[in-house]
Design a protein that fits this description.
four-stranded antiparallel β-sheet, 14% strand
Length: 229
């Protein structure tokens, strides 16, 4: 397996977050706005939905949220293929990986607390994350999960294949890996909860922006991947 760092999948998320603002006209208090902003952003990324407070604060629509969620899933497909050495996935395999991440995302666990004022230009919002350990669990069980694939291709070297034989090998490998991860969805485990204080800071134009670094930290914790070899 190619244990590429997951950070490669993050730029799209960060660009999305960079434009979000909290509106002064909201009926929510300033502290409630920031909590709603952070929670709504996480729900957009991992649930594909957001409540009305978030939509009003960001000027987004439900359609925008869905489109953003789908783009995030597309990024995960690219990362998953690189991570598990799946080359040139077919449209069917791409759909299967994307659907797998819908299920995985639904099992992510986080909660958003109250915002705390630091000074006139900075608030922090506490986010408690229980890191989802499904990828480590899948890899720990890879021998049994991939046994059928290894039996089928016992003594076969990928380098010796070409054409339809290579395509069949790649398709079978992708199917085996997807099944390996999906099989752990019924054995969900989490690491110990960790806290991230997300900074929300006032910009020169008067808008309020969440820290991209803090949100990257959350993203890496929400769904853990084994460390690179």
């Amino acid at each position: 397996m190619n244990t590429v760092r997951r950070a490669a999948a993050l730029p799209l998320i960060c660009l999305l977050l960079a434009g979000l603002t909290a509106c002064a006209t909201s009926p929510l208090t300033r502290e409630e706005q920031f909590s709603a902003l952070v929670k709504g952003n996480l729900d957009e990324i991992y649930r594909g939905k957001a409540n009305s407070d978030y939509l009003k604060l960001t000027g987004s629509t439900a359609k925008d949220v869905t489109a953003s969620y789908e783009r995030g899933l597309d990024q995960e497909v690219v990362f998953f293929c690189g991570y598990f050495s799946i080359t040139a996935p077919s449209d069917r395999i791409t759909r299967e990986i994307k659907d797998l991440y819908r299920e995985v995302y639904a099992s992510t666990s986080y909660s958003v607390g109250k915002a705390v004022r630091v000074d006139d230009t900075t608030y922090t919002v506490e986010v408690i994350v229980q890191p989802l350990d499904i990828m480590q669990s899948a890899i720990d069980n890879h021998d049994s999960a991939l046994a059928s694939f290894y039996r089928k291709y016992d003594g076969v070297s990928r380098e010796d294949l070409e054409g339809d034989e290579l395509s069949a090998f790649e398709e079978d490998w992708a199917e085996a890996v997807i099944a390996m991860v999906r099989g752990r969805l019924t054995h969900i485990t989490y690491r110990d909860a960790q806290t991230v204080n997300v900074r929300v800071t006032k910009q020169e134009d008067g808008s309020w922006q969440m820290s991209e670094d803090d949100l990257q930290t959350i993203d890496k914790l929400v769904l853990l991947y084994p460390a690179s070899n």
